[in-house]
């Protein structure tokens, strides 16, 4: 299992579009991708759960990947969040 | 006549197509052949995806990519493992497809509708829309084909879901009436994008009308008439012509300079709250930014924005404006705008307390980060610094001294900025107005903030309904104050602008022309309206009206006179 804490920087936080971009990018990976925020874990492959987590701009989230391709999944996920999730 | 919320301007007259709410009730039953039920469910999902994708494409082509995002969102949601996946699991456990769809959707609707965030609550209505579409597919219910309605149709529905709106053919639908929804609902946004008059939240309208009834939709006033007599119809036919003519006339003002009827040119700027709004200002033909509120950078986040973050945000707006003026107002916190991480203490009288420039001057490290961010952005266009809530000359001097410090530090670091950047002040307190002549010697420009100026001059909290009647920029005291500020600035040879709501008020504009205002800063959507009103007045006419106004002693008389003389 690998993980990294990153900061959400896009203005809107984890709204519809950023959540869609994120889940679409991590879904192809075999590993489980979870987002830990405010003490709760959310499925990173689920748009609904990402939105339900209510992650706002400036929030720090931990991305946790677990599985065969966990390193690659984490790298991709971190890059996405740091680049502002396509916003 | 029925009253509702005016959601999209204009007048529509036509024949009603009533969109009936279908009975979506079903009998929940235990399923033995879960494979067959899953197949039935899967085919409904596939059909939903195909239809939704087609609608998204339709909206993208006919309205725009931004509006199509709603339908694309529906697709993303249904593709989510927690949506269809959970539904499938329930079917495997023996539930019928309808029950599975209802349970999972209702769970998410409950979750999203409880959220504090408006945009998130909107997701609840998206999921409700998905649920209804899926149930209709499963129950085999056929909807009215909105895309096939005859020209001259007024759509009447309980609610117009995005999936219904996406089928609208602009040429055929002349009006929209619903029982629910407000100005920011999906249906309102799409109606405005399509320029179809719409009145929303008309109680029980679906029970009051029948197919083929004649309806008038006045989306400007929020009025609806069903089967009106000939006189009312001809009255509204005239109103519709006037509206269409006025809209066409406004479009004529696009790309033009802002000049009074006797040829004096003034500047017409926009008020914005984020760098992205600058695009809107350009699209609406704003000639610059008269007020860029910087609070957005500081709000909804756990700690202060860095100098770099601020610089990037200001630069984005400055580059979008492409050489046109951008006036950035430094942090205006306190009062009703709290920023938790600054740890400001709760005050008895926040509007009279530790806020805006007062706070910034006693937190100069933080303030210098902002000033440097602005200075660095000034290398990319024409930027000005504006100080909020000034009450005495020392404040202007102190800010200017800090700006000089920042300039020295930037120079030492070899960072580019505009050496001649102007530093001006908001004039929005009674104190600043009374010493406008003294401030004019210190500041490079003035901008009148009429909202606060009215509040502080009248000593009235506009949020308090018991005293809100006193809150009016047309009070003699406020009008005198505005006149004094403009004249003091003009005597000192500095530019005077106005960035409050009054700058776009058709009743206020002639007074501002008479007093000699040089720059009007308005909400982007009001640029063309303001330009059109300014173009109707000569200085001589405005002076004559202002003389009369200044001799009146009550707000009621002043408003009555301005309305009677309005152009």
Give short descriptive properties of this protein:
heterodimer, A: 87 residues, alpha+beta, Histidine-containing Protein, Chain: A, four-stranded antiparallel beta sheet, 3 helices, 4 strands, 34% helix, globular, B: 567 residues, alpha/beta, Enzyme I, Chain A, domain 2, Glucose Oxidase, domain 1, TIM Barrel, 3 domains, eight-stranded mixed beta sheet, 22 helices, 49% helix
Structural class of chain B: alpha/beta
CATH T-level fold name of the largest domain in chain B: TIM Barrel
Q: What's the shape of chain A?
A: globular
The total number of structural domains of chain B is: 3
Uncertain regions of chain A: pLDDT < 50 for 5+ in a row?
Answer: none
Strand order of the largest sheet of chain A: 1-4-2-3
Oligomer: heterodimer
* Category by helix and strand content of chain A: alpha+beta
Q: Which regions of chain B contain 5 or more consecutive residues with pLDDT less than 50?
A: none
Please give the radius of gyration of chain B in angstroms.
Answer: 28 Å
Question: What is the helical fraction of chain B, as a range of percent?
Answer: 40-55%
Q: Could you give me the name of the CATH homologous superfamily of chain A?
A: HPr-like
N- to C-terminal distance of chain B? 29 Å
SSE order and pairing:
The complex is a heterodimer of chains A (87) and B (567).
Chain A: E1 2-7, H1 16-26, E2 32-37, E3 40-43, H2 47-52, E4 60-66, H3 70-82
Antiparallel strand pairs in A: 1-4, 2-3, 2-4
Chain B: E1 2-3, E2 5-8, E3 11-19, H1 34-62, H2 65-79, H3 81-92, H4 97-113, H5 118-139, E4 153-157, H6 162-165, E5 173-178, H7 186-194, E6 198-200, H8 205-208, E7 214-218, E8 223-226, H9 230-252, E9 258-259, E10 265-272, H10 277-283, E11 289-293, H11 307-321, E12 325-329, H12 356-362, H13 364-377, E13 382-387, H14 393-412, E14 422-427, H15 430-434, H16 436-442, E15 445-448, H17 450-458, H18 476-492, E16 495-498, H19 509-515, E17 519-522, H20 527-534, H21 539-551, H22 555-565
Helix pairs in contact in B: 1-2, 1-3, 1-5, 3-4, 4-5, 10-11, 11-13, 13-14, 16-18, 17-18, 19-21
